[in-house]
């Protein structure tokens, strides 16, 4: 009677440890995968493709086109912080947040960085 609870407790402890080990190794596998896909795709590319591409690929209403160095030159001169500000607040025909209402400021910053990288600009803040 006096031994049984200890055995049960020990077994439970080991089961807990094992579960922890399994979940930790699964986490490790997951982060390894995302690091790999991050290396392949820019973190802003998904946001760009979802929210910005419709105007910035065709150049609708004077939107600077993706990868168009000439169109981006005067924009780059303003500096990244101003461009990010225009993105969040909007600018003329450019709607606030590019109409991506669910996007965080960080998502938008990544999308801007993605666009800047396409014209070979530095994205250091
Ligand atoms: C409805 C069309 C539309 C969408 C959607 C859109 N843009 Fe724009 N964007 C524009 C237009 C038009 C301009 C040019 C505005 C001007 O200079 O008058 C512009 C300009 C910009 C600029 C330059 C701002 C500046 O200060 O010169 C940035 C950066 C930008 N867009 C980023 C984005 C990002 C990031 C997204 C997606 C999250 C996005 N845009 C979605 C139309 C759009």
**Number of contiguous helices:** 5
Structural class: mainly alpha
Total strand count, please? 0
**CATH architecture classification of the largest domain:** Orthogonal Bundle
The average pLDDT is 82
How do you describe this structure in short?
By secondary structure, the protein is an all-alpha fold. Helices cover 65% and strands 0% of the residues. The chain is elongated and about 80 Å long.
Overview of the structural elements:
The structure is a single chain. The protein is mainly α and 125 residues long. It folds into two domains: 1-40; 45-118, Orthogonal Bundle (Cytochrome Bc1 Complex, Chain D, domain 2), CATH 1.10.760.10. The protein has five helices and no strands. Helix 4 crosses helix 5 (105-118). The termini are far apart. The model is unreliable at 20-33 (pLDDT under 50). Heme C binds next to helix 2, helix 4 and helix 5. Heme C binds at residues 47, 51-52, 54-56, 60-64, 75, 78, 82-83, 86-87, 91-95, 98-100, 108, 111-112.
Features:
2 domains, 125 residues, Cytochrome Bc1 Complex, Chain D, domain 2, binds heme C, 0% strand, single chain, 5 helices
């Amino acid at each position: 009677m006096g031994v049984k609870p200890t055995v049960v407790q020990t077994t439970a402890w080991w089961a807990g440890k094992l579960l922890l080990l399994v979940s930790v190794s699964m986490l490790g596998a997951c982060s390894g995968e995302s690091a790999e896909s991050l290396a392949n795709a820019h973190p802003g590319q998904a946001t760009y493709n979802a929210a910005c591409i419709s105007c910035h690929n065709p150049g609708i209403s004077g939107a600077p086109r993706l990868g168009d160095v000439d169109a981006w030159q005067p924009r780059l001169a303003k500096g990244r912080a101003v461009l990010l500000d225009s993105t969040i607040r909007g600018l003329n025909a450019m709607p606030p947040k590019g109409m991506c209402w669910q996007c965080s400021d960080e998502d938008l910053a990544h999308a801007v960085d993605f666009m800047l990288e396409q014209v070979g600009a530095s994205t250091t803040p």
